[in-house]
Amino acid sequence: SPVPAGFLMDWLGRKRTCLYFSVLPLFSWLLILFADSAVQLYIARYAAGLWIGITNTIMPIYVGELGETKLRNSLTTINNGLFNFGVLFAYVIGPYVSYQMLATACEVLTVVYIITFIPMPESPHYFMKHGKRQEALDALSWFRKGQPIESIEGELNSIEEAIEDQKL
């Protein structure tokens, strides 16, 4: 999963790649909900594993790129903590509810993730890598609501310099 995820996040964008591949857990939980054979469960598990590999590759990068330098470590830690909370959620409630109830709960949480992720802008770094300075400024302004435009433009210049350094 990390190999295609790395290529896709640079080609499609971090956000778009995560959203496109969010069909995998939707499919996986629905398949688990209605499965009547072990093969269907294996397919569902494979789809979920593929999605986990992709999102665990892309999300730390996305979160790190959108966070201010002083908050970056905290944001990526929260991201990892939420992933682990999801696993813990399944382990804690799984033994006490039906298979269908657990699949339904996880399906609902996946839908909530998708709905809340849709309004998020793409990473300013992605836009800058593709020469879309205005889109990068708009995205960074969205993430830095309330900060003066001079500060935002200064941060955008730093992003631009970092991307130029990567090309060398």
UniProtKB/TrEMBL annotation:
<feature type="transmembrane region" description="Helical">
    <location>
        <begin position="17"/>
        <end position="35"/>
    </location>
</feature>
<feature type="transmembrane region" description="Helical">
    <location>
        <begin position="41"/>
        <end position="63"/>
    </location>
</feature>
<dbReference type="InterPro" id="IPR005829">
    <property type="entry name" value="Sugar_transporter_CS"/>
</dbReference>
<keyword id="KW-0472">Membrane</keyword>
<feature type="domain" description="Major facilitator superfamily (MFS) profile">
    <location>
        <begin position="1"/>
        <end position="168"/>
    </location>
</feature>
<dbReference type="InterPro" id="IPR050549">
    <property type="entry name" value="MFS_Trehalose_Transporter"/>
</dbReference>
<keyword id="KW-1133">Transmembrane helix</keyword>
<dbReference type="InterPro" id="IPR005828">
    <property type="entry name" value="MFS_sugar_transport-like"/>
</dbReference>
<dbReference type="GO" id="GO:0016020">
    <property type="term" value="C:membrane"/>
</dbReference>
<dbReference type="InterPro" id="IPR020846">
    <property type="entry name" value="MFS_dom"/>
</dbReference>
<dbReference type="Pfam" id="PF00083">
    <property type="entry name" value="Sugar_tr"/>
</dbReference>
<dbReference type="GO" id="GO:0022857">
    <property type="term" value="F:transmembrane transporter activity"/>
</dbReference>
<feature type="transmembrane region" description="Helical">
    <location>
        <begin position="75"/>
        <end position="93"/>
    </location>
</feature>
<dbReference type="InterPro" id="IPR036259">
    <property type="entry name" value="MFS_trans_sf"/>
</dbReference>
<keyword id="KW-0812">Transmembrane</keyword>
<protein>
    <recommendedName>
        <fullName>Major facilitator superfamily (MFS) profile domain-containing protein</fullName>
    </recommendedName>
</protein>
<feature type="transmembrane region" description="Helical">
    <location>
        <begin position="99"/>
        <end position="120"/>
    </location>
</feature>
